[in-house]
Amino acid sequence: xxxxxxTALLIAVGVYMLLGLLVGVPFAFFGAHRIDEHARSTRLxxxxxxxxxxxxxxxxxxxxxxxxxxxxxx
Length: 74
Prior knowledge:
The chain has helices spanning 3-35, 44-56, 58-69. It is an all-alpha fold.
């Protein structure tokens, strides 16, 4: 691989991670209870624990969250 390819891949991974944090953090604190009713009564440690997973899987989490906001819960 040449330098330009590596740079492009690193930028793509960085953008994906940034978008993941922009979706994952708000989801953990404001959206998890819309998808799973049991998440409503959870405390801070649980919410902090789901941030990495929701950030890594942010496209799926975002789709589920938006579907739940429209009333079509998964």
